[in-house]
Structures are given as C-alpha cells and as structure tokens.
Amino acid sequence: MKIYNYPSKSAEKKVASIVKRGLGFKKKDVLEVTRILEDVRKNGDKALIKYANRFDSPGLTLGSIQATSQEINNAAKNVDRSFVRALNRAAGQIESFHKQQLSKSWDYTERPGTLLGQLINPVDVAGVYVPGGMGGETPLVSSVLMGVIPARIAGVKHIAMVTPPTRDGTVNPYLLAAAKRVKVDAVYKVGSAWAIAALAYGTETIPKVDVIVGPGNIYVTLAKKIVAGTVGIDMLAGPSEILVIADSTAKPVFIAADLLSQAEHDTLASAILVTDSKETAKAVAAAVDEQLENLARKEIARESLARFGAIMIVPDLDAAVELSNRIAPEHLELQIEDPFAYLGRIRNAGAVFMGNFTPEPVGDYIAGPNHVLPTAGTARFTSALSVDNFIKKTSLIQYSKAALKREARDIIRLAEIEGLSAHANSIKVRLV
C-alpha cells in the first residue's frame, strides 16, 4: 500500500479519487434494468421464469419457484451442528440489539384543548433480498439475519425472501436453515433485477411488498433505485469500505488483516489507514504485503488496494478524525489507546469499531448491530438498516373549539399569505 503524508497534493488527489468514486450507473445498465422491470411488471411470473432459466437455473419451473416447507425443514435438519450453534448465537444477539430500537406511539397535551402525537405502525409486507454468493457456493447467511430480524421485531406481518437459485434450481441449505431460524414466511428462488421487480410490483406468485431491503450487485442496486417511491428501500449500497484510525499502540498485523478483509470483496472496495505514527504506517504496509500473498482472493484485493487503498500519515489524531468524517466510511475502526476520547467527534460513519480486539468482521456476523451500512460517503446522511426501515410514523392532531379559536387568526393569516383562500375559509366557517 502506498504511504502519503496528509495534507499534501498527492494525498489530496488520492482522497478525492476515493471520495468521488461513489455509485455510478452506465446508461446501458439503466436501460437494461428498466426494460427488465417493465417486463416483470407487465408479464409477471412468465418474465420471472424466463430470466431465471436464462441466467440462473435452466430447469426452474413456476411450480418450483417457491421453496417448499419440506425443502426448508430438510435443510434445517441436515446442516452441521457447529453452524447451528453459530447461527443461534448470531441470531440471538442480532435480535437483542434490534429490540432496543423499538419505538412506541406517543402523545402530549401541553397546549390547552389540543392533543398531538405520533402513531407507530409496521408496514404490512417486506421483501428481503439475499445475494446468490457465487452461484450458491458461498451462502450469505448473515444477509438473511440482518434483513429479516429487524423486520420481524418491527412487527411486519409477512416477510418474503428472494435469492437466486443454484444451477439445479435449489437454494443453498444454509440459507434455508437461516430463513427457518428467523421465521421467514416465504422463500422465492429469484434474483437480480427481476426479483426486485417482483417485490415492487407483485406477480401471480410473489406478493407486492411495502419495503425492500438487502444488498446486491449493480443490477439489484439500480433496480432498487428505480422502484424507490413505488416501494420503500433501505439504501443504495455500494462497494465495501473500511477506514482504520491507529496510533503507535495499535498492532500492525491486526490492521493489515482488517484492511484486507474489505479489500477482498471486490476491486472497487476501499481500505484506508490513517495514523499519526510513521512506524505504524510502515509496519502495516509490510504486513499487508505479507498477508496478501496468502489470500485466496489476492488478485482482487491487490487491485482494490492499488485503486482505492491508502495509508495516510497525519499530524495528530484530531486530523485523523476530521479526515475520516470527510470520507464518511462504511466501517470505521478506532485502534487507538483511548477510543472513547475521540468517539464524540465522529460525525460520519456507518459503524464504529473500538479497540484492537473489535475487528470489522464481528459486526458482519455476530455482534448484534446491522451490517447493512451506508457506503460511498452516504454515511453523511444515511443510517444502518434498522427496525425504523420497517415502520411508519403517523401524526395525530386534535383541537377543541376553544383551541382552534385561539390560533385561528394566525392560521388564516398564513393561508392568505400563501394565496390559499380555501384553506383560510375552512378555518373561518368554524368561527361563527
């Protein structure tokens, strides 16, 4: 990894390239995804089977598009005990965390003759997208847990999961076992943009949902962007990111491992170290080179680090925090002697991992907080997936006659300023 002194022209150029990489969509992809969405909207199941046969499973039929109870139960019986143990621990801890996010309806009556408040209700139906994971060879079990659990806790009545089928028309048993553990109501063997279309518009088999959550490839992300407004979505997730702030007390071997854990995702991933220690910077660069050679996905990680990886040496940790806030990373690690001393200054980050023994993967799988996080600088205005993504907030307003008369003159004046005489009149007719 290249080492930069920050601030400097070369460091600034590198930071700018990382910040600007964002989420971009090619015109041809926009046209193709739009065509797919419209095809599914018009032709329903027929279009779904067409795309599933062409891209995923040639033998998939309409009769097998939904995973049966027997398939799900058999999967749950046949997965290994060590997986079940890990699954139960992860699910239990994710459930415990998300229960803390539950909101309650409320009201207050501070102004005489009025009642104001808010009703909290879950959406009726939610769709959870779970990526295929190399044709089912690397089942993304954590995506099932992170998408379904907050919806279930929010009180959503029906949760539909969609995931691409394997070549033989099945779903990886680990995914089905996870779906059973978190009580998914239905699992459908469809993926990519056509799965998003099915959830957004509904088909003869797949119900229309109110909210779609879950990460996916560029087609999934673009499809979510296009249907947003027709349904709610969680966010537009881009390539994975990590930024580590470290001082001289940090362990270079730990930092290198954490940077590579994100760089291996894909060639657009970003991995950055920001440190006030030259010794730490040099040691991490050496550790990255050493560990890189042992990775199964080393070529992906190598390209990722060359394009969007960097080690920044800053004057002090205050400068490190400000640089991090500017980049707004998905994952921020504070591998410093006293992380709590700087925590209050963190404004923009998807999740913060504190201390030498809190690597990012604990958040990916088991700690409890959601791992669906804002990327590409969107942590400046977006939050992690949570129970809030599955609820609606409805305002409550009640006035007595006396309360309306007390405020009528001001309401009428504001309506008249806006040129809305009928608004003003709806107040006036009640004053006689």
How would you sum up this structure in a few lines?
The protein has 432 residues and is of the alpha/beta class. It contains 17 helices and 14 strands.
Which architecture of the largest domain per CATH?
A: 3-Layer(aba) Sandwich
Shape: globular
User: Superfamily at the CATH H level of the largest domain?
Assistant: Nitrogenase molybdenum iron protein domain
Task: Quote the beta fraction.
Answer: 15-25%
DSSP, total strands: 14
Keywords:
about 425 residues; alpha/beta; Rossmann fold; six-stranded parallel β-sheet; five-stranded parallel β-sheet; 14 strands; globular
Please describe what this structure looks like.
The structure is a single chain. With about 425 residues, this protein is α/β, with parallel strands linked by helices. The protein has two domains: about 5-25 and about 240-370, Nitrogenase molybdenum iron protein domain (Rossmann fold); about 25-235, Rossmann fold (3-Layer(aba) Sandwich), CATH 3.40.50.1980. It is built from 17 helices and 14 strands. The strands form three sheets. It has a six-stranded parallel sheet with strand order 1-11-10-9-12-13, sandwiched between helices. Strands 6-5-4-7-8 form a five-stranded parallel sheet, with helices on both faces. A three-stranded antiparallel sheet has the order 2-3-14. A hairpin with a 5-residue loop joins β2 and β3. α2 (about 25-45) crosses α8 (about 190-200), α4 (about 70-80) packs across α7 and α5 (about 80-100) packs across α7.
